[in-house]
Automatic annotation (TrEMBL):
<feature type="transmembrane region" description="Helical">
    <location>
        <begin position="366"/>
        <end position="385"/>
    </location>
</feature>
<feature type="transmembrane region" description="Helical">
    <location>
        <begin position="18"/>
        <end position="43"/>
    </location>
</feature>
<keyword id="KW-1133">Transmembrane helix</keyword>
<keyword id="KW-0472">Membrane</keyword>
<feature type="transmembrane region" description="Helical">
    <location>
        <begin position="519"/>
        <end position="542"/>
    </location>
</feature>
<feature type="transmembrane region" description="Helical">
    <location>
        <begin position="267"/>
        <end position="292"/>
    </location>
</feature>
<protein>
    <submittedName>
        <fullName>3-carboxy-cis,cis-muconate cycloisomerase</fullName>
    </submittedName>
</protein>
<keyword id="KW-0812">Transmembrane</keyword>
<feature type="transmembrane region" description="Helical">
    <location>
        <begin position="461"/>
        <end position="483"/>
    </location>
</feature>
<dbReference type="GO" id="GO:0016853">
    <property type="term" value="F:isomerase activity"/>
</dbReference>
Length: 550
């Protein structure tokens, strides 16, 4: 996919130009708002949403509506960026975990996945439960990488913290759900270069939490941040080149980490010129709200979190339309990422949904269970929130916080019926063994790992890889590319090249990317994923004490 041209003038700060380039539409906010409005009544019909859940949903709806209005009114890029940060931070109810609570309530009303493609369906269930998809979609709420990193990290940490509770939902904790969770855990273990299975020693709750954490870290944090870094770096390079061509002084010092620097402003202008991501996120959130409400009883905190996210997306759209300053838009994106799981609200909803979801059985049961765990981990949400662009320096910290927060709820998520069932535990163990085998572990240790630890490890792996590391790598690559363009534009104008800490980081990343061929890149990513799997297993063990020995 071609990198967008850096909009704005080289005399402007890169953050402003980045936001102008990446936030040119409010389609995402419209979609997110619509989705949230649809999902709200659906959840309310199925589960009892607590007052905090209703407040969260209302706040999110207001956020999305504000985003749309700001975009239509041409708000400054910084205003839209700050609103996008707020949407990300409130994606799951930053301080109330309302979104996670609603998900937990929905999982409690969901039977374990059985029948054809049980494993794949269970994997999708866990992916949904993890909130990684939501985090991934929230990445469309563009903020600079320096803001996107800490915001997304905060959101992911919040989701991870709720994983134990999420795994306790009926859909994940039922014996029929524990088997596919175990198979998914083994699959991830094999994909992590572990040569021999080790999942037999991991408790089902730990396996569930591990899978959720993996989805959150990989899909919700790393992958989106990697894409963000690539885009922002590219725009920064273009911004620097344009300033140099205009004989303008280059940005230097530690300011490139912040939106006040020329490149930072250009980055925000480049990535926050559209509110399409906000519209999509709003529609998705409204749709999910209605769907959850129909199937589970969403607690008030869950409704409040969803409402808050919808409201935040609306604010982001308004800021985008009104041409808000890059700094404000980046702040909004960071807030949106941090609240992507409502500090547990989304995880609770996922847990409730898993309790109402049956474990995966039938053909491709293991694959369906892996998808269920990926969904339950929240990695999709973590990946989605990467759409709310922020600078790499900020996105790293934010996304890490969010992933770690999500990991805290892995054990709860693994207790859901769809992940805690005996059949689901077996599937989780198979997945755990697979990931262990793929991670080049020479000696099998699965007989010492409890099922709960296996489930938690798989969730943590999804959260770390999909929700944290991979998105951050993508954002780093993108941001480095933009930085090179920024420097080239400065040179073309006869301006001195921009310096500072971020300039060295961008140059190093661009140089490394230019020296890697496709085969080497694949191998390095494989090794990185294997390392993330080991980290996820360690986290699961710490959360559940899920083995007698390693």
């Amino acid at each position: 996919m071609a990198t967008p041209r850096c909009r704005g003038d080289p005399a402007q700060r890169f953050a402003h130009r980045f936001l102008l380039t990446t936030a040119c539409t409010c389609v995402v906010d419209v979609v997110a708002l619509t989705t949230l409005l649809v999902a709200w009544p659906l959840f309310a019909r199925r589960i009892h949403i607590p007052p905090s859940g209703h407040l969260w949903m209302a706040a999110q709806c207001c956020n999305y509506a504000a985003q749309i209005i700001m975009h239509r009114r041409g708000a400054p890029p910084t205003w839209r960026e700050r609103c996008a940060m707020a949407v990300r931070l409130n994606s799951f109810g930053l301080f109330s975990n309302a979104g996670s609570i609603v998900a937990k309530l929905w999982l409690d009303q969901t039977p374990p996945v059985t029948g054809h493609f049980a494993l794949a369906r269970h994997a999708l269930l866990m992916l949904f439960s993890s909130g990684a998809v939501t985090q991934l979609l929230l990445q469309a709420e563009v903020v600079r990488f320096s803001w996107a990193l800490p915001v997304q990290l905060l959101v992911v940490i919040n989701c991870v913290a709720f994983n134990p509770t999420m795994c306790s939902a009926t859909a994940l904790a039922h014996p029929a759900a524990q088997q596919p969770t175990h198979q998914l855990f083994q699959l991830l273990e094999m994909a992590n270069f572990s040569l021999l299975p080790v999942a037999a020693h991991v408790q089902p709750a730990a396996e569930c939490a591990a899978v959720l954490s993996y989805f959150q870290l990989s899909i919700g944090l790393v992958l989106p941040l990697l894409a963000h870094a690539k885009l922002e770096s590219s725009l920064f390079q273009e911004h620097r080149r344009q300033r140099q061509q205009c004989d303008m002084p280059l940005e230097s010092g530690i300011m490139p980490w912040l939106y006040g620097s020329p490149f930072s402003r250009r980055w925000v202008l480049t990535t926050c010129t559209s509110c399409v991501v906000d519209l999509v996120a709003l529609v998705t959130l409204l749709a999910a709200w209605a769907l959850f409400a129909r199937r589970i009883h969403i607690p008030p905190s869950g409704h409040a979190w969803m409402a808050a996210q919808c409201g935040h997306i609306a604010v982001q759209v308004v800021m985008c339309r009104r041409g808000a300053s890059p700094g404000w838009r980046e702040l909004g994106a960071a807030t949106f990422r941090l609240n992507s799981f409502g500090l547990g609200a989304a995880n609770a909803i996922t847990k409730l949904w898993l309790d109402q979801t049956a474990c995966q059985t039938g053909r491709l049961a293991l694959a369906r269970h892996a998808l269920l765990m990926l969904f339950s981990s929240g990695a999709g949400t973590l990946l989605l929130v990467q759409g709310k662009a922020m600078r790499l320096s900020l996105a790293l910290a934010v996304q890490l916080f969010v992933v770690l927060k999500c990991m805290q709820f892995n054990v709860t998520t693994c207790s859901g019926a769809a992940l805690s069932d005996a059949l689901a535990q077996q599937q989780t163990q198979d997945l755990f063994d697979f990931l262990e085998l793929a991670s080049f572990s020479p000696i099998p240790v699965s007989a010492k790992i409890q099922p709960a630890a296996q489930c938690s490890a798989v969730l943590s792996y999804f959260q770390l890889s999909v929700g944290l590391v991979l998105p951050l790598l993508v954002q780093a690559a993108l941001e480095s590319f933009l930085f090179q363009e920024h420097q080239q534009q400065r040179r073309q104008r006869g301006m001195p090249p921009e310096g500072g800490c971020m300039q060295q980081l961008y140059d190093a990343f661009s140089s490394l990317a230019g020296e890697l061929d496709r085969a080497t890149l694949i191998v390095m990513l494989w090794l990185l994923l294997g390392l993330l799997w080991k980290v996820a297993v360690a986290i699961a063990f710490a959360q559940t004490g899920g083995s007698e020995a390693l």
